[in-house]
Design brief:
InterPro entries: AWS_dom (IPR006560), H3K9_Histone-Lys_N-MTase (IPR050973), Post-SET_dom (IPR003616), SET_dom (IPR001214), SET_dom_sf (IPR046341). It is built from five helices and 14 strands. It has about 350 residues and is an alpha/beta fold. Strands 2, 3, 8, 9 and 10 form a five-stranded mixed β-sheet that branches. A hairpin with a 6-residue loop joins strand 9 (about 240-245) and strand 10. The longest helix has 17 residues, at about 215-230.
Length: about 350
């Protein structure tokens, strides 16, 4: 019996006859445009879709682990982890203080084939700058007359955007970004730690504490959220720092809240040490700026590979207080209190 061939099902308009072939190169170009904007969980999910996506996701993860600073600093700051499978910490990078972001999950290109710096929305220092500064027009032979004015001051002053001198002025030490080699190392107890990757001399500038500037109300709201996250996620750690600048009268103080949990710089990885650590903290104000910045300098010579640390403060829970928000200290110093400094925001 002769078989009869069934009629072919007609293709609808918009199906394969109108589908353009997509080459591997085109796919790679599209992926390189989109995938670097994904956060770590999203990138992990995409890597499971196909072999090509898995390959691209792995290359992005590798590039992210090579530079936490996203090319926004003078030198790359790599992640090194011999403890677990976590390759990097996921956060948006800013070298400066910035206004608080209302976005629950800030996005920033990171890990693309080309430099990520031009795509960053956090390149400009937009907080507290005005066009009021010193009258220096130029600095000759490595000397700036503003240095004499700053001698003996409780808060160090630097030339700012309103000054007539240029970026090579010797009174702009902290405005040139990170100029020493650093690395972020995973520790079994502490998590991520910021370490020196070279010999750092005493009084050498390391970095400033950069992040979102919050109102006190917003700082308290976020701290409540962070406390809840820490109680449910053992690996979660916040980087909300409260600074109090006491006024000369002694009757009041200026409170500054800097949150580097979601958006910050390498300083968010500096851990506490009960013995004061090897870093000194300096409140520094640029000419014309409303708010000071917290900057870190080497308190002594720091050897290559040594962890960087400072004291978070002296306020701790007393035996009669609730230990609900108590955080264990793992600094390992001979005078360790066993708990991290804790203070209600």
């Amino acid at each position: 019996m002769e078989k009869q061939s069934l009629p072919k099902k007609p293709r609808r308009l918009g199906e394969s006859q109108l589908t353009l072939p997509v080459t591997d190169n085109q796919f790679l170009r599209c992926a390189d445009l989109i995938l670097p904007w994904l956060n770590a969980p999203e990138l992990a999910a995409v890597s499971l879709t196909c072999k090509a996506s898995s390959f691209i996701s792995r290359s992005i993860t590798l590039r992210r682990s090579l530079d936490a600073a996203r090319s926004l600093e003078n030198l790359p700051v790599p992640f090194l982890n011999a403890v677990d499978s976590k390759r990097y910490a996921d956060f948006a990078y800013t070298p400066f203080q910035i206004p608080a972001s209302s976005s629950p999950q800030p996005r920033q290109r990171w890990g693309g084939g080309a430099s990520d710096a031009p795509a960053s929305q956090f390149e400009m220092n937009v907080v507290g700058e005005s066009m009021c500064g010193c009258e220096c027009e130029r600095c000759e032979e490595g000397y700036c007359q503003c240095l004499a004015l700053a001698a003996g001051a409780e808060i160090v002053n630097e030339c700012g955007s309103g000054c007539g001198c240029g970026s090579d002025c010797p009174n702009r030490v902290t405005q040139k970004g990170v100029l020493v080699r650093l690395k972020i190392v995973r520790d079994e107890k502490k998590g991520w730690c910021l370490c020196s990757d070279q010999l750092i001399k005493k009084d050498q500038f390391i970095c400033e504490y950069a992040g979102e500037l919050l109102t006190t109300a917003e700082a308290r709201r976020r701290q409540t959220i962070y406390d809840k996250l820490r109680s449910t996620q053992q690996s979660f750690s916040s980087a909300l720092l409260v600074i109090r600048e006491h006024l000369p009268s002694g009757q009041a103080c200026l409170r500054i809240n800097i949150d580097a949990t979601r958006i910050g710089n390498v300083a968010r990885f500096i851990n506490h040490s009960c013995d004061g650590g090897n870093l000194s903290t300096v409140l520094l104000r640029s000419s014309g700026a409303l708010l000071p910045r917290l900057c870190f300098f080497a308190a002594r010579d720091i050897a290559a590979g040594e962890e960087l640390s400072f004291s978070y403060g002296d306020v701790r829970l007393t035996p009669g207080e609730s230990a609900e928000n108590k955080l264990n200290c793992s600094c390992g110093s001979s005078c360790c209190f066993g708990t991290l400094p804790c203070e209600n925001t």
